[in-house]
């Protein structure tokens, strides 16, 4: 099982002065050479990069190679394409689709369910705000009659009008 998380991105190991080739070997890259090499090509990873000197996007790509190079029973990916450029994103999604058709693997994208839930939640919250059941409301305050402190300050000291 593998999941790329924000905690892994902050892992001191992936931010230390380790060469990518040594890093991948230290997590079993030598055991999964074929898949590792396919992923290195897809994700456009340079084995001579130093982990502490690469961008967040490059670090994400190395972490994806690390997590996807071995076979898995369950794979959890959350916003896996964040920090990836369009071409790399496309190639990675193609790889995951191929993996999804082989070995009886099944994939599921839950964005539609999440978006439906988020819309319902926002609609409910707005109804509660309009009914006065919420102590604060979100969004622009178009009907606010009390001027803000900055508005008072600029009216007082702005001599342009």
TrEMBL record:
SUPFAM superfamilies xref list: P-loop containing nucleoside triphosphate hydrolases
InterPro entries membership: P-loop_NTPase
Entry keyword set: ATP-binding, Nucleotide-binding
Top-level taxonomic group: Eukaryota
Ranges for region Disordered: 126-149
An example molecular function term from Gene Ontology annotations: ATP binding
Record protein name field: ABC transporter domain-containing protein
